[in-house]
Design a protein that fits this description.
Blueprint lengths: L1 H8 L4 E5 L2 E7 L15 E2 L5 E4 L4 E3 L2 E3 L2 E5 L9 H10 L4 E5 L2 H4 L14 H10 L3 E7 L27 H17 L11 E6 L45 H18 L5 E5 L12 E6 L40 E4 L16 H11 L6 E7 L1 E2 L19 E2 L13 H20 L3 E3 L16 E6 L4 E6 L10 E10 L2 E5 L5 E3 L4 E10 L2 E6 L2 E8 L2 E8 L6 E4 L4 E6 L1 E5 L4 E5 L4 E7 L2 E9 H4 L2 E6 L2 E6 L3 E4 L3 E7 L3 E7 L7 E3 L4 E3 L7 E6 L9 E3 L4 E5 L7 E11 L2 E6 L2 E7 L5 E4 L1 H4 L6 E6 L2 E2 L21 E2 L1 E17 L1
């Protein structure tokens, strides 16, 4: 018994060669510890709604819940397009939106608060409510966010006070700011039936700061931190190894800030604080959130990060050490670098394959919440006096694209599609995952990021069932092909051999989550070599969706005697110990019958899964397969197609053609399978010729086209080789870009909709041979300078239409 107890507590990781096959053994039979309810968090909403927090996870209405938080700064995006963007986020599986309220943008002049136009936080939160999204408001007073002074107003520098301290005068200004926020968003709180479930107090307090914007060329950065904290203040997110003699005062300041927020009326179930790098929190009254940036711009050079190695994040969060007792709080990474900014001297390229790999790693390391900074890019506002962008750090003055899943102009990118597959999994099965314990292989303590050959894996389990996590991605290098993998997972109900016979391979840059002993409507799925994506329960059909990356044969093992019928591209084989179902192609289907209940299983290739949308339309949940961007609404779909005027989509399960209509001619087309309805819509072709006039080597103008009703946007694509690029309208800077070795993509619709902008002027500076950031760019595509010290070349100018149509359902 003692040996069994020891094995259930500690991992026994044995792997050995069986021919060319490697078997990894792991003991997942241990029972998770009971959660402790000691945190002063949580609250009630209208109609019996509730949020609770224990030391392991958050609960929503009594069920474990994993928040999926996407950062979107409303003030950095035109308000007329907020609704469209929030719908895109919801379609991508986001369930919570985080947003900053930058103090200096709302109170640029002392005592004069501005909540108008793109600053209208109330309108933004009401749109979150309309779209079924929760919200977390990040109220500062210090924010960072690559905003001038980290969000602190310029006029604070001229006041007789010490910022970010318990200075009474400073706190009086903070109190006024909090009161103005509370008055503006009154009635939007969870307790009132609104979307606001959380408030973040301060940001990276006693860890990081930003330079004051009032500075002089060549001057060392003068940081926006309390004077007592300056010696320990660092630039950017990182590890803080020094002991802070003022740590107790820091925690006390955070407590006072929370008291001021509550006094103002900012009352929510959740309060968060950045907990990484020894930052201060409100002990027992805030969730310390963590961060992970694989491609930081604040480091001197590229470096291979530790954020793709599994670990126990409950014991050792990223950017440790921390000043709180880690096992007293749930693990909530809220700033996962889904993208990154560029500064003049550093221009890291965020690889979108890293996005889902990092989430896989975090979930496999015990995370019970995920959050992205940024999920949606934007453009930093400016005024007549200065740019709100953090110019002292050398950031673009306007662009805050962040290389995010949704770009500065609403572009849906690769990372969006990769992440949505995990989001749907968490939304449908997070209540099962959240209470599960972490089980790690023995080599995690010695495995280094530079080790690209050893397998990286982890298990989360409740002792009987669970999920196997595999990651074969590492930033700034390429992992080896992991071949002939097989796992032996010990559970309280016996061993699960995954697969039962044979093995599978995992390609470089891929990651995977595989279920074992999964309860599928009363039927035990012993294992699957395909990743679980979603569960759809409509009145007339119930089905589960899985997908598998290239090179992996999807195999499903059930107990012998389970009634399984092959429907499409599947085979069923009964053995002495199991019923094995194998998917043989894309959109394979099989049916499980248990008593009077039938469960269908749909198996996709990952290539198809990435082109899939999970939507709720006309009261039913369906899958949409499309190369186009799909934006669902209550009873309709908006379909966006870039450059191609033929928009096509397929619906699963199939629908009656009489229930679907469009504002443009809708044509039925041949479907990929009998379970699918297929349609296409051809819109009038829009062709635009770029008319440009040069004014010397660096400057040219472009006449802007008209935005027709059939178009959602027109993008101007500038393929150039240069240093910095700027776009002006009527002499005002409206767009800018730092060269990163790829074309500059500019969405024009906000200009074209105003009917004011008819011409843009561009100014591009030459790229210099000794530029410090060239080391960040793709080395295979670096320009050839020849004997020249600089280079400037505009290779092409192109208008790219984004077509739009709406499909309605009865």
């Amino acid at each position: 018994m003692k040996l069994n107890t020891f094995l259930s507590t500690f991992l026994c990781c044995l792997y050995f060669a069986a021919g060319s096959q490697t078997i990894y053994s792991i003991d997942a039979s241990g029972i998770p510890e009971e959660p402790r309810n000691t945190l002063k968090l949580g609250g009630e909403g209208e109609n019996g709604q509730s949020i609770a927090v224990n030391n392991q996870y958050i609960s929503l209405n009594g069920k474990p819940w994993i928040p999926i938080t996407g950062e979107f700064h409303f003030c950095r995006y035109p308000s007329r397009y907020w609704d469209e963007s929030l719908k895109k986020m919801k379609a991508g599986g986001i369930n919570t939106v985080a947003t900053y309220l930058f103090w200096n943008i709302h109170e640029q002049k002392e005592g004069k608060f501005d909540w108008s136009g793109d600053r209208d936080v109330r309108k933004f939160l009401e749109l979150c409510r309309k779209n079924g999204l929760y919200a977390i408001v990040r109220i500062g007073p210090f924010a960072h966010g690559e905003i001038r002074n980290g969000g602190l107003p310029d006029w604070l520098l001229g006041k007789p006070l010490s910022i970010r301290s318990n200075d009474p005068l400073y706190l009086s200004y903070v109190e006024k700011f909090y009161k103005a926020i509370a008055d503006e968003i009154k009635g939007t709180y969870f307790k009132d039936g609104g979307p606001v479930i959380g408030v973040q107090i301060e940001n990276e307090y006693q860890h990081s700061a930003a330079p004051w914007g009032l500075t002089y060329p060549g001057q060392p950065h003068d940081m926006t931190a309390s004077e007592r904290d300056l010696a320990l203040t660092q630039e950017g997110v990182g590890v803080s190894r020094e002991n802070n003699p003022y740590a107790a005062l820091g925690n006390d300041h955070m407590k006072i800030l929370k008291e001021l927020a509550v006094k103002a009326g900012l009352i929510t179930p959740l309060y968060t604080a950045t907990g990484w790098g020894n930052a201060a929190i409100v002990p027992n009254e805030s969730i310390p959130v963590t961060a992970a940036y694989a491609y930081p711009f604040w480091t001197p050079k590229k470096d291979i990060s530790p954020f793709f190695l599994y670990k126990d994040m409950r014991k050792k969060p990223d950017y440790s050490p921390v000043r709180y007792v880690t096992e007293d709080y749930p693990v909530f990474p809220a700033e996962l670098g889904s993208g990154i900014m560029t500064v003049y001297s550093r221009r890291p390229i965020a690889v979108h394959k890293s996005f889902d790999a990092m989430i896989n790693r975090c979930l496999g390391s015990g995370a019970n919440g995920v959050g992205y900074y940024m999920y949606h890019g934007g453009s930093t506002p400016h005024n007549d006096a200065y740019y709100f962008s953090d110019e002292a750090y050398g950031l673009p003055k306007i662009s805050y694209d962040f290389q995010a899943p949704i770009g500065e102009f609403g572009q849906v990118r690769e990372g969006y599609h990769r992440l949505k597959l995990l989001h749907w999994f968490l939304n449908d099965f997070g209540d099962r995952l959240a209470p599960m314990r972490i089980v790690l292989p023995e080599n995690v303590s010695s495995l280094k990021p530079e080790n690209i050959s050893e397998l990286r894996y982890s298990v989360r389990s409740n002792g009987t069932s669970g999920f196997l996590f595999l990651n074969n991605f590492q930033d700034d290098t390429t992992m080896t092909y992991k071949r002939n993998l097989r796992f032996s997972i010990n559970t309280s109900k016996g061993k699960v051999n995954l697969p039962a016979s044979g093995s599978f391979d995992l390609q470089p840059d891929e990651n995977l989550i595989l279920p074992f002993n999964f309860n599928m409507e009363g039927v035990n799925l012993q294992y699957a070599t395909a990743q679980l994506m979603a569960r759809v329960d409509n009145p007339e059909d119930l089905f589960y969706v899985f997908f598998a990356p290239e090179g992996i044969k999807p195999e499903f093992s059930f107990a012998p005697g389970v009634n399984v019928n092959a429907l499409n591209l599947t085979t069923v084989k009964n053995t002495a110990g199991s019923t094995i179902v194998t998917a043989l192609g894309d959109r394979a289907e099989f049916l499980i019958t248990e008593g009077k209940r039938q469960v269908k299983v749909l198996v996709l290739t990952k290539e198809t899964a990435l082109k899939t949308y999970l939507v709720d339309i006309a009261g039913k949940r369906r899958l949409i397969f499309s190369e186009n961007t799909i934006i669902p609404d209550e009873n309709s779909l908006t379909i966006l197609g870039r450059e191609n005027n033929k928009l096509s989509f397929e619906i699963y399960p199939k629908v009656n053609s009489g229930t679907i209509r469009s504002n443009n001619p809708l044509k039925s087309t041949k479907a990929g399978s009998k379970s699918v309805s297929a349609y296409s819509i051809t819109l009038p072709q829009s062709d635009f010729t770029v008319q440009s006039v040069k004014f010397g080597e660096k400057k040219f103008s472009i006449k802007l086209p008209d935005l027709s009703p059939a178009l959602n946007d027109i993008f101007l694509q500038i393929d150039y080789t240069g240093d910095t690029a700027m776009g002006f309208v009527d002499g005002n800077l409206v767009f800018d870009e730092f060269y990163k070795g790829m074309p500059w993509d500019i969405g024009l619709r906000n200009l074209l909709s105003s009917n004011k902008a008819r011409e843009m002027v561009f100014y591009i500076r030459p790229l210099h041979k000794n530029a410090t950031y060239l080391k960040d760019l793709n080395q295979s595509t670096l320009p050839d300078f020849g004997n020249s010290k600089s280079l400037l070349k505009v290779n092409s100018l192109k208008f790219v239409p984004e077509y739009k149509t709406v499909v309605s359902f009865q």
